[in-house]
Amino acid sequence: MNIGEAAARTGLPAKTIRYYEEIRLIRPHRAANGYRSFNERDLHKLSFLARARALGFSIEDCRMLLALYEDETRASADVKRVAEGHLSRIDQKIADLKSMRETLSELVEACAGDHRPDCPILKGLSAEPARMPG
Amino acid sequence: MNIGEAAARTGLPAKTIRYYEEIRLIRPHRAANGYRSFNERDLHKLSFLARARALGFSIEDCRMLLALYEDETRASADVKRVAEGHLSRIDQKIADLKSMRETLSELVEACAGDHRPDCPILKGLSAEPARMPG
DNA sequence: ATGGACCTTCCAGCGCTGGGAAGGTCAAGG
DNA sequence: CCTTGACCTTCCCAGCGCTGGAAGGTCCAT
């Protein structure tokens, strides 16, 4: 099938599929007219990529996971290692965001949000953030 | 002072400071020899930017916040609106990451992580993710 | 005069698309 | 047979927010 149908069936934009081919994640055949030609195997790989990307795996993680997916002799430990690495990166991001959220919401709550110029948010951004007042 | 000292005192890399000038967030003077020359006001703005960026504000948010910071007649409501917008983006990101984390950790926990090829993580990525089995 | 630390500009790249131009190909309809 | 329009192709530019490197100018100490 052509790229349009592959896009429709995997939910990935055609642009993204071309990009995945460019970076050698997939290697669809070419028809005589030069069009990419996708088989069921390609579709599976694309769907796999779509799900892995939706879980936030980097492209390089995806490349590794796809290789393991295709390797019948893999050890599940190898897969698990990749996933655990990603999990800890997610945890780190969540922690960072929560910390930002904490600071920011304190500032927002302290701000009257009216017509006056006095603003704790700007004060907080212009001064070294004071530590817990206690 | 030169860019090196400005970098040391704000904690921002010199490259980043040059970039901020390029996108017109700051406009340091130039000395006769062509070197950028930073005054205290520039330093304050750079520190402000460093803190705003550390809280995850986008460059465009920073541009807006900096303009409000410099405008003595601002309304704190305008600042608050920017901050609240950012706060809700943070909340959305946290929610997304938590959702990823949830799915991923279920898969990781189900994986034996041994020498055998059987792997629930790969299975989960290759099949339509099953909804709660209940 | 020389060395090295500093400064300058410009160019390219990261991951991951998205947008759009310019052009080839195909199937259907007049 | 020719046109229309949907599809496909490649290529290049843009964006985020820097970051790296190359090539070269400036300054200061020795």
Folded structure, characterized:
The structure is a homodimer of 134-residue chains. Chain A has helices at residues 3-10, 14-22, 40-54, 59-70, 76-110, 120-126, and strands at 29-30, 36-37. Chain A has a two-stranded antiparallel ribbon with strand order 1-2. Chain A has a domain at 1-57: Multidrug-efflux Transporter Regulator, Chain: A, Domain 2, CATH 1.10.1660.10. In chain A, helix 4 (59-70) packs antiparallel against helix 5. Chain A is mostly helical and 134 residues long. In chain A, strand 1 (29-30) and strand 2 (36-37) form a beta hairpin. The interface between A and B is large, with 53 and 53 residues. Chain B binds a DNA duplex (30 and 30 nucleotides) through helix 2.
Largest interface: A-B, 53 and 53 residues
Which stretches of chain A of 5+ consecutive residues score pLDDT under 50? 130-134
Rounded mean pLDDT score of chain A: 91
CATH class of the domain at 1-57 in chain A: Mainly Alpha
Class from helix and strand fractions of chain A: mainly alpha
Helix count, DSSP H or I runs of 4 or more residues of chain A: 6
Biggest sheet character of chain A: 2 strands, antiparallel
Q: Beta-sheet strand percentage of chain A?
A: under 5%
Work out the helicity level of chain A: 55-70%
DSSP strand count of chain A: 2
- What is the radius of gyration of chain A? 24 Å
Write down the oligomeric state.
homodimer
Shape annotation of chain A: elongated
* Strand order in space, largest sheet of chain A: 1-2
- First CA to last CA of chain A: what distance? 66 Å
Q: What is CATH's topology name of the domain at 1-57 in chain A?
A: Multidrug-efflux Transporter Regulator, Chain: A, Domain 2
Succession of helices and strands of chain A: HHEEHHHH
Q: What is the name of the CATH architecture of the domain at 1-57 in chain A?
A: Orthogonal Bundle
